[in-house]
């Protein structure tokens, strides 16, 4: 006699019953957590804040920009905005950077406020802030809310404990005041089960102020003026403007310079789950460990540089033509700045290479025999006893070509 599952599969195959959606077991999910605070922030946008016009009684919904520290669950951003525009999201993000310092990474979903991953592939304002401040921006896979599970759980708690029962607010300011009071209790008083009943504030430590002063914070000029929120009706005439993110005097304008014909181009791409990124018919292997990270490409007809959070991770010979660069610029690229490679100016560079079994060393795309390397005592180099071992660092002066 056939089993129950065999009968079920036969009925599904012939279209006699609708297949049920199998829910994943709780054990299928892998829990992960960063080792230290300020390593990763998870960020999201949640609705449910109702505003009421006391004159007309009209209701409108505002949004809350939320972010929690992955290690401690400490809420670093809880900002009420009338509209969840990219500029309003970035203003809340910059205020948190000024208050707590710059995290190593930020994890978000694929909302258009955070990325143009599914648009033209250009750089949005949020990506620009991350790039200029050395923050690695990670993106989740589509329809994967469990990846940002900590901030999603925070949003659920926020709705259940505050938004579902607080009613409508008369202004953004009133909603923000109620939210601030709730966040203060959440961070400092409320025990957290995942933290062994500690509060998030017990495990959170911001970046030291001395370190923040040394590194500084780059803020795009477009955030010099934050959109003013709607004040309470009784305070319409006397309300002061909402505090704006200070504009740095040496900031560039928000617009990008036009791309010169055949000139270098910068553009962004997101590493897929496979770790194999493809651009203009060529694959760039970055590894699954970098899945979801935003990579900045600096490309011309000679070389392509790949950067993450402002740090160069790979440089390869370019396969792009002038027409390819123009096409990339039309799809969200921009005029590139100076090359990420350090200027030589005749200086010497110290590099490490491994001598292969044939006595050759790869330098600058060329195979160099070990005997051709400087062996005089003035450079202090000794021939390795075993050709397959690691060569000592070589000082390559003007007489050698090395990249």
Topology (SSEs and partners):
Blueprint: H1 4-13, E1 40-52, E2 59-69, E3 75-81, H2 86-100, E4 105-108, H3 125-132, E5 136-139, H4 149-163, H5 172-188, H6 200-203, H7 209-215, E6 265-270, E7 276-279, E8 282-285, E9 294-299, E10 303-308, E11 311-317, H8 322-330, E12 334-335, E13 349-351, E14 360-363, E15 366-369, E16 394-396
Parallel strand pairs: 1-4, 4-5
Antiparallel strand pairs: 1-2, 2-3, 6-9, 6-12, 7-8, 9-10, 10-11, 13-16, 14-15
Overall pLDDT level: 79
Which structural category fits the helices and strands? alpha+beta
- Number of discrete domains: 3
Could you state the CATH homologous superfamily of the largest domain? Ribonuclease H-like superfamily/Ribonuclease H
Q: What is the C-level CATH assignment of the largest domain?
A: Alpha Beta
Sheet-strand content, in percent, reads 15-25%
Number of helices: 8
Please count the beta strands (DSSP E, at least 2 residues each): 16
Low-confidence stretches: 225-255, 374-403
Give the helix level as a range of percent: 10-25%
* CATH-assigned fold name of the largest domain: Nucleotidyltransferase, domain 5
- Give the overall shape, derived from the CA principal axes: globular
Major sheet: 5 strands, mixed
């Amino acid at each position: 006699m056939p089993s129950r599952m065999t009968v079920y599969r036969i009925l599904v195959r012939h279209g006699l019953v609708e297949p049920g959606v199998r829910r994943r077991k709780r054990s299928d999910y892998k829990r992960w957590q960063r080792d230290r605070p300020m390593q990763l922030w998870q960020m999201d946008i949640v609705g449910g804040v109702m505003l009421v016009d006391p004159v007309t009684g009209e209701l409108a919904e505002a949004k809350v920009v939320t972010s929690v520290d992955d290690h401690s669950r400490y809420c670093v951003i809880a900002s009420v905005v009338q509209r969840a525009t990219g500029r309003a999201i970035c203003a809340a993000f910059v205020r948190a950077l000024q208050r707590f310092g710059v995290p190593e990474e930020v994890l978000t979903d694929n909302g258009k406020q955070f990325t143009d991953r599914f648009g033209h592939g250009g750089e949005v304002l949020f990506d620009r802030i991350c790039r200029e401040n050395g923050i690695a921006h990670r993106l989740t896979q589509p329809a994967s809310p469990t990846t940002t599970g900590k901030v999603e759980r925070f949003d659920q708690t926020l709705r259940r404990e505050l938004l579902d029962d607080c009613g409508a607010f008369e202004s953004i300011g009133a909603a923000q005041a109620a939210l601030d009071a709730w966040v203060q209790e959440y961070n400092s008083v409320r025990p957290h089960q995942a933290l062994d009943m500690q509060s998030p504030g017990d495990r959170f430590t911001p970046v030291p102020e001395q370190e923040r002063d040394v590194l500084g914070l780059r803020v795009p000029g477009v955030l010099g003026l934050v959109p003013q929120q709607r004040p309470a009706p009784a305070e319409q005439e006397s309300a002061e403007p909402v505090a704006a993110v200070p504009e740095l005097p040496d900031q560039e304008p928000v617009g990008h310079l036009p791309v010169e014909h055949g000139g270098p181009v910068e553009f962004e791409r997101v590493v897929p789950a496979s770790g194999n990124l493809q651009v203009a018919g060529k694959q760039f292997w970055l590894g699954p460990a970098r899945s979801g990270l935003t990579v900045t490409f600096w490309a011309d007809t000679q070389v392509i540089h790949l950067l993450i959070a402002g740090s160069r991770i790979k440089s390869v010979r370019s396969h792009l033509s002038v027409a390819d660069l123009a096409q990339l610029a039309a799809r969200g690229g921009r005029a590139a700045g100076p090359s990420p490679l350090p200027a030589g100016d005749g200086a010497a560079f110290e590099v490490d290479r491994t001598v292969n079994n044939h006595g050759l060393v790869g330098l600058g795309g060329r195979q160099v025999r070990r005997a051709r390397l400087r062996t005089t005592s003035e450079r202090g180099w000794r021939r390795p006893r075993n050709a397959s071992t690691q060569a000592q660092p070589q000082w390559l002066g003007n007489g050698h070509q090395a990249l």
